[in-house]
Give the backbone structure.
Amino acid sequence: MNIIKNYVNGQIVGSSTDEQDVFDPSTGESISKVLLSNEKDFQSVIESSKKSQLSWSQTTPLKRSRIISKYKNLIENSLEELAQLISKEHGKTLEDAKGSITRGLEVVEFACGIPHLLKGEFSQNVGTNVDSWSVRQPLGISAGITPFNFPAMVPMWMYPIAIACGNSFILKPSEKDPSCSIKLAQLFTEAGLPDGVFNVIQGNKMVVDMILRSPDISSISFVGSTPVAKYIYEESAKNLKRVQALGGAKNHLVVMPDANLEQAVDGIIGAAYGSAGERCMAVSVAVAVGDIADELVEKVNYKAQTLKVGPWTDLESEMGPVISKEHKEKIENYITQGAEEGAKLISDGRNYKIQGYENGYFVGPTLFDKVTKDMTIYKEEIFGPVLSVVRTKNYEEALSLVNEHAFGNGTSVYTSDGEVARHFTTNSKIGMVGVNVPIPVPMAFHSFGGWKQSLFGGHSMHGMEGVNFYTKLKTITSRWPQSIQSGPEFVMPTN
């Protein structure tokens, strides 16, 4: 059976004998094994990253940009292969996998502009014959710990900018779908990236803890659940590391009475059930305002029943399985709990079976109505194809729901009223906000990040936030000596 190992210094390596099965979620069968790295493996990654970083930081930004540009072309040419690696191990449809790679590729494109993005500021004559300017310099070794749901896109939110800024980068992908990361690293080597600048280490929590404790690693980037994000944040701070840790979400989509209902329903269906709801920007709560609720629930339920659920190999599939047997059981337990707590179960996705794939990890599109804010399915992140409809009397009540929730990742409002839209975008306490857009994920030249329990640390991801995160600011004040000395000065220059 194929064993997925580490990618270090341009080579596939790994000394550990510990392994873990990698499953095809559509069939429930083990399709390969992934190495669970040990301390010796980790130290080899650190040494490789340290050795390469200094010379890479001294490579001009323009030369770095040219390598990244070649890398962009290689990813585009390998789109089909990368998508198949993702779908085989994650279960999402092939088109969904391709779309996620494209969104990651946008960050690679953004990183190609690094010569411009690293420009500092200059002030002449801050004092008499004294000039001052700022530069941004790399941190050293950066690391990324990434989730199973986007094995290409989320890493590409991190390492292209980190590497463009002159850092070396260590990627620790999810052990559930590790193959794509190796291919991405190999393509970067093919593009001309020096060996050791981008290394991939496979493993579990033991490797994560080694990353967090290592004095050689300067920054940590993380995307995952809120409890783990909080742990990453706290441990990084203890070890004096810069950290951006993106956590969970409970994204609300508010539907006003004047909304274009067909557009709202289509938006909800794609955002709630796409990728089996395993997205941090998935819509998991639809807030129906006023008398639109009955019709909204009816139309969402009708369209949910028409979704084609199946394996990624079926090109007509619109929704695949969830990632694992354990996660399937967790989601189904939430559905049971929602019904027990009094929510009206309109569509039940438990015990969903597909002929020929009876052992796959499929959960059908699930819809709850009349959910209240004290219910578990409302308060907690389910991370599956489960949509809760909450009914409110008016806009003010809907906005309060959005703002009072512990998570603050994304939200949207569907309305035809510009005043309502402006008020919502101004007053919602959420990091990413959409108007008549179901999943308001920013483009690469803006930044991705939530508020409240959805983000720990002072920086969002990609855009200029990414450049600032992966560099440290240095300010220089300079005066060239005159031929005639005027003696020592003991005060700050002011003129």
